[in-house]
């Protein structure tokens, strides 16, 4: 069975959301960030970066959420969540996957690092206005690419939509403005999918169960 290492309200939602969309059974292993378990020896042996998510699927141990999602969709999705290799749609899929993590997410992660993720001596508060500006520039390109379409790639929901929608939600949590009406509607539409609620509940239950066990 696939094991997902994660924590609520992080990139691990990308993986639990996908698994719920695919209807796959999986084991969710909480990595308690509040207790710095992501820096523990046992978890560093799984993901030396000390971040979530990571997965274990048979003999494969893997980190990096976008790569994990494409792997799972290719292996278990029967092309439901990912276009076939060599097609025009696959090219667009790869484009938006990389855009999500390289352009859209990057300034948000910079904001996080400058506020809390990095040790205090390495935080640079002055970078935050630049990061806010970068995020807004990325939104403009994304809005243009989405246009009046329901999804980013063709006429169907793919992993690219999971990555982008989760990142847009991250922006909202970070109190970043999303002015484009098509992106506002897109985010709300994607997050209203039933699989999102199931994935979020699965992660929240894992944290609640651990807290109850320790109380």
TrEMBL record:
A GO molecular-function annotation: transferase activity
Domain GST N-terminal: 1-80
The GST C-terminal domain, residue ranges: 86-215
CDD domains, sorted: GST_C_8, GST_N_GTT1_like
Source species, domain of life: Bacteria
Keywords: Transferase
Family from the record: Belongs to the GST superfamily.
Database matches in PANTHER family: GLUTATHIONE S-TRANSFERASE GSTA (PTHR44051:SF8), GLUTATHIONE S-TRANSFERASE-RELATED (PTHR44051)
Protein name: Glutathione S-transferase family protein
């Amino acid at each position: 069975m696939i094991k997902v290492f994660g924590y609520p309200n992080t990139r691990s939602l990308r993986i639990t959301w996908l698994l719920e969309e695919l209807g796959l059974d999986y084991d969710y292993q909480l990595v308690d960030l509040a207790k710095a378990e992501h820096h523990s020896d046992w978890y560093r042996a799984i993901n030396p970066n000390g971040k979530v998510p990571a997965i274990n699927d048979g003999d494969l141990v893997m980190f990096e959420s976008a790569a994990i999602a494409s792997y799972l969709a290719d292996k278990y999705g029967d092309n439901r969540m990912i276009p076939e290799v060599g097609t025009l749609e696959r090219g667009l899929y790869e484009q938006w996957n990389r855009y999500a993590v390289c352009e859209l997410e990057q300034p948000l992660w910079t904001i996080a690092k400058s506020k809390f993720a990095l040790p205090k001596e390495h935080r640079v508060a002055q970078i935050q206005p630049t990061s806010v500006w970068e995020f807004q520039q990325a939104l403009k390109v994304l809005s243009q690419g989405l246009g009046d379409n329901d999804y980013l790639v063709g006429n169907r929901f793919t992993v690219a939509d999971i990555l982008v929608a989760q990142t847009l939600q991250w922006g909202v949590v970070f109190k970043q403005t999303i002015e484009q009406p098509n992106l506002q509607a897109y985010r709300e539409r994607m997050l209203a999918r039933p699989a999102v609620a199931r994935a979020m509940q699965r992660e929240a239950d894992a944290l609640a169960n651990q807290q109850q066990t320790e109380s």
